[in-house]
């Protein structure tokens, strides 16, 4: 079986002779697809759930994320691929997710909803210059992947659409997300690494994740880690982030039973407008896949640094709540100025850390000043992942996308 399944979605502004172009697509069974893309092409997904194949759950989740058993496969789907490009000159992929959102709300789903894009165990991935609309579930989901770049992408899903995350790197490494606009019904970016005992057993972390120049709005968090983080998350760098009209800007979600760790996170240069909670960490979040999870598997949350943040019309500066007997430690805040409306701007428990130049003044648990001997506690990444580090020159790659056949 070839390592690449040629697909389909390269929509360019001008094809040769200014005519429509046709691409032949090869699937694992020798099937062929002709997909025609023209200027500003729109690819719409099927709305009949019976037309969506059901595949096995991911091993790091042990079951479908929403229901036991399998899960519906995404439209754009690939496994064990190398050199993957999904791109277009403002082409649009519309998931037409409303029927799936209704099924979720009405509790009539038979299996977990499909993602819009899912690539599994793949390397050298580029997703760029396209618009993704109305995903049934998470929009772009690279899982067990290496060397992934998502750039110049627009993702739009209505507020109120359930669990419609934007970009979810999951047990993946060397991921760069840059120059994206995202507006969704859930987290704009959510970094994950497996769920409870399944994620612990699978043991593949998300590491070296870089986010640059993100703009967006959401009913949830701008940048989130978790709640599925049982394989571990580390070496996360985010800079030049603009979040507006949102529930929260930065969020870490975990709970007893998750295990794993979140460490070495550095977030810098954020502008927040009309945000309910600027910084929110919670150690009591989320459900479990089954009753076999280890209640003594406590997560380690440490060395989280947030610097250079300004915010207007913020309701609360921080809601930072660890786990009793399992403190979140080395939380470092510096040069943060927020215009906060609530009289009690900070609410902290079971956390320890440091702060300087924070207004309004941070909570007592984080009030220790940052001195030179705290440098090792307050994390700063030694190296920033950029797109040039994780993607080959486009001149050396074919501008096509890859899709697994149904």
> Total strand count, please?
21
The biggest sheet amounts to: 14 strands, parallel
Describe the global form. Answer: globular
Radius of gyration: 21 Å
Instruction: List SSEs in N-to-C order.
Output: EEEEEEEHEEEEEEHEEEEEEEEH
Number of helices: 3
CATH architecture of the domain at 190-392: 3 Solenoid
CATH topology of the domain at 190-392: Pectate Lyase C-like
CATH class wording of the domain at 190-392: Mainly Beta
Name the structural class. Answer: mainly beta
InterPro entries: GH28_Enzymes (IPR051801), Glyco_hydro_28 (IPR000743), PbH1 (IPR006626), Pectin_lyas_fold (IPR012334), Pectin_lyase_fold/virulence (IPR011050)
GO molecular function: polygalacturonase activity
Subcellular location: Secreted, Cell wall
Keywords: Cell wall, Glycosidase, Hydrolase, Secreted
Model description:
There is one protein chain. The chain has a domain at 190-392: Pectate Lyase C-like (3 Solenoid). Helices cover 5% and strands 47% of the residues. It is built from 3 helices and 21 strands. Strands 3, 7, 9, 11, 12, 13, 14, 15, 16, 17, 18, 19, 20 and 21 form a 14-stranded parallel sheet that branches. The protein has a 3-stranded parallel sheet with strand order 6-8-10, with no helix packed on it. It has a two-stranded antiparallel sheet with strand order 1-2. The longest helix is centred in the N-terminal third of the chain and has 9 residues, at 98-106. It is found in: Secreted, Cell wall. Belongs to the glycosyl hydrolase 28 family.
